[in-house]
Amino acid sequence: MSELPKSQSLANRYRPQTFDEMIWQQHIIWILKAKMQSDSSSLQNYLLCGPRGTWKTTSARILAKAINCLDPHDWNPCNKCANCELINSWKTTDYVEIDAASNTWVENVREVIINQAWYQPISLKKKIYVIDEVHMLSWAAFNALLKTIEEPNWNVCFILATTELQKVPQTIISRVQIFNFKKIPQWEMVSHLANICKNEWFEYENEALELIATISEGCVRDAIKYLDQVSVLWKISSNNVSQFLWISTDATIKEFFDIVQSWDIDQIFEQIDKLSQWTDLQQFAKQCIGYIDSHIMDNTDFYLEISEAFSEILRQVRFYPYPAVLYKLSFNKYLEWNGVIAEPTVKKVEKKVDIKKESKEEKEDIKEIDNTEQTEENIKESNNVESIDWNLWDKIIQHISSTTTRQVLKDHMAIDKVTDSEIIIIHDNSMVAKTMFEKERKEIEDIIEKELWKKFIISIEWISKEEYFQRLMWKMM
Ligand SMILES: [Zn+2]
What we know:
Blueprint: H1 10-13, H2 26-38, E1 46-49, H3 56-68, H4 82-88, E2 95-99, H5 103-106, H6 109-116, E3 127-132, H7 139-150, E4 156-162, H8 170-173, E5 177-180, H9 186-200, H10 206-216, H11 220-230, H12 238-244, H13 250-261, H14 265-278, H15 281-295, H16 300-316, H17 323-337, H18 347-372, H19 376-386, H20 392-397, H21 403-412, E6 413-418, E7 422-427, H22 431-452, E8 457-462, H23 465-476
Parallel strand pairs: 1-4, 1-5, 2-3, 3-4, 7-8
Antiparallel strand pairs: 6-7
The structure holds zinc ion.
């Protein structure tokens, strides 16, 4: 399937080049092929809609090639003839891909559509305009598009793609042929990933691929991206995948639900702390809701109640820098509501915080006394400590290209102090984060130098997970 070099990402190497390489969209492919077979001159304009990552743009490119191919095989593009080559290598002005979501196109999309679409194609049979995320076009651009597709013009074909069909004007919808792309179901995704693994000689467990399929939520692009990330491990096992991608197995979710049903708040909090050390808690909430959905008949009352707690968590989790706190507040509320605990809201979370706050104040008192005897330079240094930008770490790691690394470093590390010459980072001792940080250390040092305009010594303080969490709680005060 893939002839691209191994250095290319899996997503690039396994992007379909023909209709027959696509998975799960046969309902569309049959119609497209039938149309091409019956009368290729009637081919006009298309709107491909459906969830993100379901290969809409990829299909648009295949369709563009199939329409122009000089030697199609069963209506698939050959990818070898002059026309296919021109499109694959972007060497023709007759094939244009426009991303309506990108600002750079906002100004000239109208002009491209109005002025250029009418000219005869130079090298291809038909000019093809692919407009991705077409619902983002301006009103003026929609009007220009409408004018162009209203008039029959056999030289040009528009292939529009969107994730939000309801935002595309009815006037456009009524003039194009619509194709609905579907999310890839779990079993099909697993079998697709298994094929890639076999092809690449990856050692894998089926359960691991099921986990990847679950978090990809039917988006094949994401699934292949995750597979690419875990392919660096010696074996793609469910354990490795769950640790590397911060996702939970069904067993972990069940264990958490069992603990919740014990009604013991200490145990629940302990489990939340444990989970927060190696799980993406936003993803965990999503997975829990998925788990409830497939097990609801086992214990309907419990699952209905608990799903409310998770819906609440999901609504807010994006805005919480420390999701474990949100979990604790929600489960505290849940137990309180069930009459399991009597003390009004957040007693344990707040108590914990109060203790830390006191000890933090004590610490600061001591520091103040010490400071009186310190040199001027040290005082300057401690002043700098006071002015830490708490978002600095986020700002630094956002420049790291890998999403997984970014997430791991965000969840396991935080800046504790910044002095004139040194940045002290606390780290919760997670092995995965340790390895990732050491791998990225040079890049992070470079980013810091760029962001702060000078070189800093980066010191890491490895502390226990519990202490790490407590320090973050102080910072929130
Ligand atoms: Zn061809």
